């Protein structure tokens, strides 16, 4: 039976016969490219650049999913009777029905296929091991990943009849860059150093995505890169399993024996190779570099080195993107958190243990509150400036008067200089950012994200062949520790600091990189899309169905014929057009500025003042709109509040000033509440968000 199943899978995937390398893309106008491969010339068509790419993550397809099954923990949408809809059970812990995957890929085909330049796909393409009656096995994990490769081929494959030729490089129209997820292996979370069964197997499963010149390297550890715009932009796929603190098979990134160390050495050498060639890089992986007391996903030694790499290669790295978390948000890496030893190229393998359990939707509010607290401690710009609105020798004229102009000018300049020093300069080079996308699996609502990036200045008439892209830089990692395997017992008795090579920083004369200053390849914005399954499934009409709370809802019988509405993704928000975020672009000063606004949150005063407006009332509300006023408190609260104010303020003028402050305080809180509503992809109402996170 097993052999029969594998034969069927092989027959299914044989038609994919995917390429060893990605099809290069260029600027406007499709033009033929003559490529020599294996002694034969081939003619290919280039594609115009659109300045957009797609990020999808965490599909978690589940072939055992049953419509109208129970969402209870002991059923997992596999049996029983309950509210599991045809396209998924939103806000539950159930995985994705195949119907959701099919509809999602069909929507991408119809709406995005011819509008994007490449796809980053950050892992978890198999179901969770969440049903004791249906434990996962190797065939299921690989079969689901093969299934997702097939779906990618259905959307982005060329289908030109040459799928079985000796050169399958024609089969995909745009580059697709996948990453290992912690559920793409068995047992989940645990991967040993390579080469291992999983890296060898995925070298086959992803053979169309991994450049031939990097196949051997991929088998060593599961990492690779693709030059999605040859000689201009490379996307790196990192294996975050070797950074994860809950991977019991590895031990951080301090010693050269560890695959995490080896991956970072490979990354260092390749990023230097990109710098030498003038190529920029996007970093992708599954598990984000979350580092908090409330939650930490990476081993501290890996985080330290990775953050150092981000700082040293800030002229090369455009952005970094992750999945796994299921919540929509972003992180800041603060380079002031780098240890002194790390900056000096030394690291102990004996790090404090960090909590690294699997991250799903049941995340403690402590994580979000700690994130807000961290951002509340960010330096705040003085009133005399905005980070990018003035040059170093300019002062806001509003800060000066005829009398004392010189003194005020000096004070304002001193304040600006102090602030800029705290921020790492006017481009906020003290920080880097990580974008964390919500998932397709409907633990909230299914989501996907489209980024726009700057393609000005690129040679739109240039054509690229495979010969134009040099092979990766050679990497030879030696065990440079003073110890050897025979000294293991001795090492356990005393801390050992291991030396490593510190990456070179940007030249002092270098301009800020695309992550910091608007330029070619800088990210301009992203549009977050979501599918409102409550509306689409069309099974329930109550707005109370939140967080998987299905009590009180009478499910349909199993023989009921679903009557869903048309499946579609719609815009949740756009970072540039959004009335709250209003980000000119996604460079670091603007992202840090948003974090500063979120961190300014202050709890509403007692008595009900400062109640958050409902999302439906926010279309014309902006952070700087002085005409905005808070919603009215309840009658009882208003009386109590009025009495308190009379005791504190007898003067009517002071009373009015206090009302104004209350309204401003609520405007001040709007970025935080908006950030949290979007973290949960709109599955929590404004009132629910304020109740849970308004303190």
From TrEMBL:
<keyword id="KW-0472">Membrane</keyword>
<feature type="compositionally biased region" description="Low complexity">
    <location>
        <begin position="633"/>
        <end position="642"/>
    </location>
</feature>
<keyword id="KW-0325">Glycoprotein</keyword>
<feature type="signal peptide">
    <location>
        <begin position="1"/>
        <end position="17"/>
    </location>
</feature>
<dbReference type="GO" id="GO:0000324">
    <property type="term" value="C:fungal-type vacuole"/>
</dbReference>
<dbReference type="GO" id="GO:0005774">
    <property type="term" value="C:vacuolar membrane"/>
</dbReference>
<feature type="region of interest" description="Disordered">
    <location>
        <begin position="633"/>
        <end position="665"/>
    </location>
</feature>
<feature type="region of interest" description="Disordered">
    <location>
        <begin position="475"/>
        <end position="514"/>
    </location>
</feature>
<dbReference type="GO" id="GO:0006798">
    <property type="term" value="P:polyphosphate catabolic process"/>
</dbReference>
<feature type="region of interest" description="Disordered">
    <location>
        <begin position="544"/>
        <end position="563"/>
    </location>
</feature>
<keyword id="KW-1133">Transmembrane helix</keyword>
<dbReference type="InterPro" id="IPR029052">
    <property type="entry name" value="Metallo-depent_PP-like"/>
</dbReference>
<keyword id="KW-0926">Vacuole</keyword>
<comment type="similarity">
    <text>Belongs to the endopolyphosphatase PPN1 family.</text>
</comment>
<dbReference type="InterPro" id="IPR012358">
    <property type="entry name" value="EndopolyPtase_N1"/>
</dbReference>
<dbReference type="GO" id="GO:0004309">
    <property type="term" value="F:exopolyphosphatase activity"/>
</dbReference>
<keyword id="KW-0732">Signal</keyword>
<comment type="function">
    <text>Catalyzes the hydrolysis of inorganic polyphosphate (polyP) chains of many hundreds of phosphate residues into shorter lengths.</text>
</comment>
<feature type="region of interest" description="Disordered">
    <location>
        <begin position="382"/>
        <end position="419"/>
    </location>
</feature>
<keyword id="KW-0812">Transmembrane</keyword>
<feature type="compositionally biased region" description="Basic residues">
    <location>
        <begin position="402"/>
        <end position="416"/>
    </location>
</feature>
<protein>
    <recommendedName>
        <fullName>Endopolyphosphatase</fullName>
        <ecNumber>3.6.1.10</ecNumber>
    </recommendedName>
</protein>
<feature type="compositionally biased region" description="Acidic residues">
    <location>
        <begin position="478"/>
        <end position="488"/>
    </location>
</feature>
<keyword id="KW-0735">Signal-anchor</keyword>
<keyword id="KW-0378">Hydrolase</keyword>
<dbReference type="GO" id="GO:0008081">
    <property type="term" value="F:phosphoric diester hydrolase activity"/>
</dbReference>
<dbReference type="GO" id="GO:0000298">
    <property type="term" value="F:endopolyphosphatase activity"/>
</dbReference>
